[in-house]
Amino acid sequence: MKALFATAAALVLATSASAGTVTVSNTSHKDPTGFGTAFTDSNAFSFTLFEDSWVHGLLKTKGAFSSVPAVDIKSVTLSNLTTGEIIEWSELVAVSWATTRVGVEQWAMTGHELQAGTWTVSVDGVSYSNKQGNGYTVSLEIPEPGSVGLAFAAVVGALAASRRRKSV
User: Is 10 in the same domain as 62?
Assistant: First the structure.
């Protein structure tokens, strides 16, 4: 019973320590022309994975000083600088820019198993505000090093405890 309790505790710790949220914001994009100014943030954020890991991501547009954003995101990608793999994000909430010049957009990357290596997030878009900065916030759920190994050890312990109980 002690082994089973220890295994359950390790499994709870492993799952609770499995990921940390990293959030990066950029609200510096402006439009001095009045017709929309394109931008490319080719390295909005970089991180390194030391082992293959599952990662999730979400991008939301935002305006400076809590204003309604006037920025149209055209694409969001996650690229592995080691292997060249590119993952395209999907637009979840869109704005009809032909009829309005303000609104909140959301882009997401559902869970992907990423290979170990250095990854970078890139964002392309158009800003329509000439008075305040506009941009986005990117949030990524990135596993903490060693959490996958800890979860594996917990599962192996649970299986061993189960087998031990069956043989007694």
Answer: no
Q: Which residue has the tokens 């994975």?
A: 49
H or E stretch at 46: strand 37-49
Bridge partners, 120 (sequence order): 46, 79
Please check whether residues 76 and 157 belong to one and the same domain: no
Domain residues for 132?
19-143
Tokens of 89: 């994000």
Domain at 69, CATH number: 2.60.120
Q: What does the alpha-carbon distance between residue 8 and residue 14 come to, in Å, rounded to a whole number?
A: 10
How many structural domains compose the chain?
2
pLDDT tens for the 168 residues of the chain, in order: 454 444 444 444 444 445 688 898 899 999 999 889 999 999 888 999 999 999 999 999 998 777 788 999 999 999 999 899 999 999 999 988 888 878 899 999 999 999 999 999 999 999 998 877 889 999 999 876 554 454 444 544 544 544 555 555
CA 53/CA 49 separation, integer angstroms: 7
Nearest to 133 by CA among 25, 46, 24: 25
